[in-house]
Amino acid sequence: MEIRPYTRSDADPVSEVHRRAFDGRDDESRIVRRVHDADEAVVSLVAVENDRIVGHILFSPVSVDGPNGTATLVGLAPVGVLPDHQNRGVGSSLVERGLAECRDAGVDAVVVLGDPGYYARFGFERASEHGLGNEYGADEAFMAKSLREGALDDVSGTVAYRPEFREIDGS
């Protein structure tokens, strides 16, 4: 399996990955397209096996309504893997590579709204322990990972994802 940066020609196969990974729902694929159309993807990677895209992960900027010092935060969302490739390490490989590329891009911390049991193995912790809330009202499932020591020390408040995450209803 190869993991490489997303390109514009990947848009349709990536949309299909997210539709299939999320039981036919289009929300995630529309978010990915809109974030890319706005040129706001910080890191966007595809997993390719036998010349077929089998997974995708996106990291995009988030804002914090509160003191955030000089920290740069991104949100991990969505990550999708074709159902017939799930539980084979594709998602984990995308997360690990994505976190490394975020660090290389100068990102200080990453937030994610997802399964705590899954994301804890990558070093994510409950974000509320760092004084971070979110616009969805989630607690245990909203997690943060520092990519450099002390990155979350001076950050607190409500994290908001890009507008593309709120624009999916009805369009």
From TrEMBL:
Pfam family, one: Acetyltransf_9
Record bears the keyword Protein transport: no
Keywords: Transferase
Residue stretches making up the N-acetyltransferase domain: 1-148
Coiled coil: none
Alphabetized CDD domains for the sequence: NAT_SF
InterPro entries in UniProt: Acyl_CoA_acyltransferase, GNAT_dom, MshD_Acetyltransferase
Molecular function in Gene Ontology: acyltransferase activity, transferring groups other than amino-acyl groups
Name of the protein in question: N-acetyltransferase
Taxonomic source organism: Halosimplex litoreum
